[in-house]
Structure formats: C-alpha cells, structure tokens
Please model this.
Amino acid sequence: MKILITGITGLLGSYVAKEFSSLGEIHGLKRSTSSLRLLEDADFPIHWHEGSLSDVDSIDQALEGIDLVIHCAGLVSFMSKDEDRLFEVNVTGTTNLVNAMLYSGTKKLIHVSSVAALGRNPEQKTVNENQKWVESPFNTKYAVSKYMGELEVWRGEQEGLDILVVNPSILLGKVQDERSSTSIYSYVLKNSTYYPKGSINYLDVRDAATLMRKLFEKGSWGNRFILTNESIKYRDFFNQMALAFGKKAPSKPVTDFLLKIGLLALSLGRSLGLTKNPLNKQTAMISQQDITFENKKIKELLNYPYIPLKETFLWAK
Model:
C-alpha cells in the first residue's frame, strides 16, 4: 500500500508518518522550503513529492499510484491578518485535494479536521460528533475555515470517496517540536501569573497518530471521530505542567475586568508593531469557557488507554 501524507513535516503529520510506516510505503507532499527536522529520526524511507495544495499539477503527480491519502496539512492562526490565508489553505487547498483524488481514482482519504470545526455555542457545555454547526461569536475564522474544509471532504464522499474524518483537540507534542500547539508550554516556562477560568481539551500527539491508525485498521469509513483525552480546568492543567517542568504554576484567575484591560493593551501593542500575541476577543472568551468535547464514540469502538497527562508533560519537556 502506498500512503500519501500532506502536512507530513508538521507536528501531527510527522507522528502519523511514523505510525503508518509499518502499514505501507510512505509518500510526503512538501514545499521546497519545508523543514524536515521533525522527521530526522525516521527509520523508514519517505518518497518525497515537491509541491503544495495550491498547485493542482503537483497534487496530481503526487497521487499517481497512491492507495490512501492522509490530509494533515492545514493552517492554524487566530491573527486577523491571516484570514485570507486560512481559507486559501484550509478550504481551497482541501478542495483541490478532493477534486484531484476524484480525478485520479484514489478513493481513500483520512481528513484531519479540528474540534473547532464542530462549532461552539456559549450555551452548550458538551459537544459530540453529532454537533450541527451554528453561527456563534465563539467561532473563530480558523474554525470557519476548518468547517468549510470539512464540507468539501463530505462532498467528496458523496461523489465516491471513502472518507474518515478526525477532529483533534489541542495536540501536545514536545517542547522542542516548536509547533503552534506546543506554544502552550511557554505559558508556564515564562512564569505567567494568571490562568484562564475555562477548560482545555487536549490529546498527546502520539495518541492522536495511534488512534488514526487504529481507526483505519477498523475500516471506519464514513465516520467522524473526536480525538481528545479529556477536558480539564486550565488551573489544573498548568499546575500539572508546572510540577513536571519544575516551574511555578500560574496562581491567579483572569477576571473579566483584567481580560478587558489585557485585550486593550494587546490591541495597542499590535497597532504599534510591538507584539504578535494572537489573543483577541474571541480567543479570550473561549479561554474563559467550560466546554467538553466528548470522546465516547471512539472509546466504545477502541477502548483505547490514553497516555496520562503527567506522562505527556514529562515526555514533552
């Protein structure tokens, strides 16, 4: 079996490549400027295809002889300046891939979406795979782009593709991986004082890759699965992180008043070019919200033993 992975040089893509390497021949679509650092320890050959999801010809060439596509490529950003790029990568790029697969005859696609694509509602405390998208002030442009990208994937299923969609929560890799989701470690490493009052849903990136392989081996086509370990208060999350890292945990909750002051200061700092902090009104509201993304569906199917948070932090540091 020949497996093409988009986003293979990214955090999840690199772990997925290692997890699926025992199942077939790994092919990777990458840009000429992509760093291969996260794959330096790979003990299997990778057949490289240079191109991008914006270049349809390069997708067509990469798909020749491919049996399975794992679409890990995507852009994560909460900066207003990246709005156009979000839709270019997460929507148009996914559309190009789906269309190329339909044209080439490659039938099987595992699509990595996000829990953000399920949408958030200020009145809803739990979300599962049956969630219907509703307009909400809690839905960021990133969330909208992932939702729209998913629509293209399900359109591909209607036109003949075998589809498996996974919606990961925040992925925890190693500090040294230096990818977007691992930046959360800097909050404790920099001895921050305040913690959000809401909850965080997380998953060890190694669990995410393993779960994707197990779902593939189960032949779970036509399904969507939330990939997450648990929902935990930010205070408890940062306390466990600080203990593992030998740091002082944030000790003061962020009040609504402090949040307004902080947002005002960040807005001024961004206008003066003094900061690139992505916190804005939407992400601030989300960080104060208690929400649980349920993993009941995948638990019932696989009965998978998740890596404990303490072990993830010790490994991550």
